[in-house]
């Protein structure tokens, strides 16, 4: 199951479309869906989680807690909508495009992709682009 939770006044339009897309991302990586919760929040909310659980005193766009077991993908993905909006401006892309990138990014981490080195980051960006292109593709 995929759950969308809101700690701000933002609401994802057409949750079913996003659910279908995320399920197809997982299937395309030969994984199974367990339970994923997306929590949309603001900078202050995510900063508190970053400090409390990760001991990082910085702002970030996404924090994911991975509960994946084997090939069954599960976890909690916290997304700061303020960071997404700022990143969209910085990268000169629409907000929805950047939001899709972050939604896919969290799931890709659960599928085993990392982004700590330049090589890993390049592969992650390539995978994000690949998965974003699947958004409107019918099954």
Mean pLDDT: 95
> In this structure, how is the largest beta sheet organized?
4 strands, mixed
Number of separate domains: 1
Number of distinct beta strands = 4
Strand order of the largest sheet: 1-2-4-3
Structural class: alpha/beta
Radius of gyration: 14 Å
Q: Which architecture per CATH?
A: 3-Layer(aba) Sandwich
Low-confidence stretches: none
For CATH, the homologous superfamily is named as Metalloproteases ("zincins"), catalytic domain
For the termini, the CA-CA separation is 19 Å
CATH topology: Collagenase (Catalytic Domain)
Strand content: 15-25%
- The global form is globular
How would you spell out the order of helices and strands? EHEHEEHHH
Specify the CATH class.
Answer: Alpha Beta
Q: Helical amount among residues, as a percent range?
A: 40-55%
Tally of helical runs = 5
Write the layout of secondary structure elements.
Layout: E1 2-6, H1 15-28, E2 32-41, H2 43-54, E3 62-66, E4 72-80, H3 81-91, H4 95-110, H5 118-132
Parallel strand pairs: 1-2, 2-4
Antiparallel strand pairs: 3-4
Helix pairs in contact: 3-4, 4-5
Cofactor: Zn(2+)
Keywords: Cytoplasm, Endonuclease, Hydrolase, Metal-binding, Nuclease, Ribosome biogenesis, rRNA processing, Zinc
InterPro entries: MetalPrtase_cat_dom_sf_prd, YbeY
């Amino acid at each position: 199951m995929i759950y969308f939770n809101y700690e701000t006044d933002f609401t994802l339009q057409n949750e079913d479309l996003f659910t279908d897309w995320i399920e197809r991302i997982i299937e395309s990586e030969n994984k199974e869906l367990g339970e994923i919760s997306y929590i949309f929040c603001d900078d202050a909310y995510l900063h508190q989680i970053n400090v409390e659980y990760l001991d990082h005193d910085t702002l970030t766009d996404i924090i994911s807690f991975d509960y994946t077991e084997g090939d069954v993908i599960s976890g909690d993905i916290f997304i700061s909508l303020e960071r997404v909006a700022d990143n969209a401006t910085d990268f000169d892309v629409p907000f929805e495009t950047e939001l899709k990138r972050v939604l896919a990014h969290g799931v890709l981490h659960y599928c085993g992709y990392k982004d700590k080195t330049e090589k890993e980051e390049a592969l992650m960006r390539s995978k994000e682009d690949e998965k974003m292109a699947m958004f409107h593709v019918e099954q």
